[in-house]
Amino acid sequence: MARRGLKGGLHESDAARCSRSVYFHSMSTGHDTGRGPRMTIRRLRAMADEGERFACLACYDFTTARWLDRAGVHLLLVGDSAANVVLGYDTTHPMPFELTVWLTAAVRRGAERAHVMADMPFMSYQADDAEALHNAGRLLSEGRADSVKLEVDASHAPLVEKMTRAGIPVCAHIGTRPQQWALSGGPTVSGRRRVEADRIVEDAVALEQAGAVMLLIEAVPPGVSERVIAATGLPLIGIGAGDACHGQILVVNDLVGLSDWVPRFVEPVADLGPRLEEAGREWVRRVAEGRIGGRAYTSLDSASLEPGAERVQKTPRNPEKEESVRVVMSEHQEADRNP
Ligand code: KIV
Asked: Is the minimum distance from the CB of 239 to ligand 1 under 6 angstroms?
C-alpha cells in the first residue's frame, strides 16, 4: 500500500491541529501520560499517514531518556551504537546482549511518553531463530521495549514472520547495515547503483509482507527512500537517507556535539563536548583551590568533631545492604532538610 507524502509546510491551522489530535486520540491504545499520549505503533503510523514527521534519537541511559522524553522526542532507540559511544569500540559487534536488556530498561524508565525501541545486537538473532525469538522476547518483557529492531534483508522474512506471530513488533533496518561492515569492508553508502536500489526496495516489500511494523533505512540516496515509501505502507525512519522519510533518527551524542567525528549527514544542534570539558576543568581548578562550593553540613555535636575526638559512627539498624542504603539515603535527606 502506498503512503501519502509528508506535509511540506511547517505551519497549519489550529483547526487542523485540533482535528488531528482528536483523530490521534481515537487511534491511540496507549494511556495519556500527562505530557500527551504514549507513542504507540498506531500513533506513529497515524503520524506517518497524516504527513506529520516524527523525531527519533538513539540514546542509552535513564537521565538522557528523561530529558529527551520531556523534549517531545517521539521515539528512543537503544541502539547497538552503544558499543561505540558508550563502550568505546570501533564497531557495533561487541555490544553485549545482556547490557542491551539493562540499557533498554533504563531508557524505558526515563521515557514516559516516547516509543522505546531496542536494537538487537550482533549474534543475538542471526544464529538461530529460537534464540532470536527468546532474545527479542526478553527485550520486551525485561527491557519493557515497545518494539525491537533487526538489521535484515528479504532472506530474514521468515524470522520476522515468526517474531510477528509471537506478538513481537519488529522494525526492519534496511539499506546500509553496520553489522555487515566486516563483510563490506567498512562504512558504506547503499543503493547508489540501480541493482542495489532495486534490492533494497524488494527487501522493504518482503519485510512488510512478513509483518514488520516499521522500517528504518540507513545511508542511501534520497531517491531510494522515496521508492521505499511508494512501494510500502509502513512508517519509514531514515538516517542519512533524505528528507522524504516519515521519521528521522540520529545518535544523540552526534546531535549534541559529544562526538569527535560525525557522519556527513549529521548537523549538530549543540556543543556539549567542549562544555563538558570546560566543566571538568573548572572542577579541577575548584578542587585545587579549595573552593568546592555547595553548602556544608553543620555539626550537631561539635565536641565529637574536635581534634582527637572519636567520630560518631552510626551502625545500620539492619545489616542487610538494602536497608543500610535506605538509612544512609534518608539520613542525607534529613540532613538536607536540617542543614
Ligand atoms: O544503533 C544505532 O544507533 C542505529 C542507528 C539507526 C541510529 O541503529
From this structure: yes
The fold for domain 14-255 equals TIM Barrel (3.20.20)
Ligand 1 geometric centre to CA of 307 (Å): 57
Alpha carbon distance 50, 43 (integer Å): 10
Provide the whole-model pTM: 0.83
**How big is the chain, counted in residues?**
339
Query: Is 81 near ligand 1, meaning CB less than 6 Å away?
Result: yes
Of 142, 218, 267, 320, catalytic: 218
Rounded Cα–Cα distance for residues 228 and 119 (Å): 21
Q: Is the predicted pLDDT of residue 258 greater than 50, yes or no?
A: yes
218 is catalytic: yes
pLDDT tens by residue, 211-243? 999 999 999 999 999 999 999 999 999 999 999
Nearest CA to ligand 1 atom 1: 79
CB 218 less than 6 A from any atom of ligand 1? yes
**Backbone phi, then psi, for 250, in 5-degree steps?**
-140, 165
- Find the 107 Cα to ligand 1 centroid distance in Å: 15
What does the H/E/C string look like for 268-307?
CCCCHHHHHHHHHHHHHHHHHHCCCCCCCCCCCCHHHHCC
Residue nearest to atom 4 of ligand 1 (CA): 79
Q: Residue ranges per domain, the chain? A: 14-255, 299-339
Per-residue pLDDT tens over the stretch 31-61: 556 667 899 999 999 999 999 999 999 999 9
